[in-house]
Amino acid sequence: MSNSWPAVTDRGELRGSAGAHSCALGIDIGGSSIKAGLVDLERGRIMGERVVVPTPHPATPETLTNAVRGAAAQVLAQQPGGTSSPESGYEAPLTPPVPAGVAFPGVVKNGVVTFAFNLDDSWLGANIEQTIGAALGRPCVFLNDADAAGIAEMTFGAGRDWHDRTVLMLTLGTGIGSALFTRGRLVPFTELGHVEIGGEDAELSASASAKVRFGMDYPTWAAKLSRYCWEMEKLINPDAFIFGGGISQDHADWLHLLDLQTPAVPAAMFNDSGIIGAAVHGADVAESIGRKALQR
Ligand code: BGC
């Protein structure tokens, strides 16, 4: 399914229209775990239990597709009329057939993966619609994981009052993801976590996984993150930063240690924003495609 990027302000209108879906499946593929949930699109909340399964290693198209299908099946099994057995064969359709959005930790253009820094190299050039899309068996949209988190935060969370500003959302996890919004519109596929600082890819020293890998305490890591954000201030000049990823839940331990010129806030949905934004975008794209078909 081809992508389009409605402005944040148009999303409510799309979702509020007659015939719009009230919920959608959101899946967030991360370097260490795959998170999935059914999302209430009016409230921007996960309904029922969110499912978390480990990202397989190596994360090839085949292993990841199986893991994503398993996570989706577990989510849908919680719904009335849902897939009865999460272990049902690969060919069995997963029900109910709500639309889905899948947040991927890389760049997906026209259904093809063109960049995936933290997954197996066999993803490069792979057609994700024919792998994960086919396994989910429903209208399915793929987007970058940080872009998904940003859509959720700009629609329902920390950025909902900043539609007239330039906002840079950074997700801090295995890598550093970036989602850039200006006047409520996403500039998709930015890969600002890979800006080089001192000749080194920034995410290798300033991501949350680097903090763990190098045993950094919060002040040491906050200094690295500040250094990275100065580069963002210099190059992008955002009006605000939103910090997401699992570590945003512990923001009380480190946000005050950052030394920035720009206002910075934690993600309101913490690590759930990827699931929620993926579902919102999946539903919005399905809705706009449905409308175009009706107009023909
Ligand atoms: C990837 C990005 C992704 C980020 C967070 C980076 O390594 O290149 O596409 O958004 O990690 O997962």
TrEMBL record:
Signal peptide: none annotated. Gene3D superfamilies: 3.30.420.40. The keyword Protein transport does not apply. It holds the Pfam family ROK. GO terms for molecular function: polyphosphate-glucose phosphotransferase activity. Coiled coil: none annotated. Its EC number is 2.7.1.63. Keywords: Kinase, Transferase. The keyword Transit peptide does not apply. It comes from the Bacteria. Belongs to the ROK (NagC/XylR) family. PANTHER family: POLYPHOSPHATE GLUCOKINASE, ROK (REPRESSOR, ORF, KINASE) FAMILY. This is Polyphosphate glucokinase.
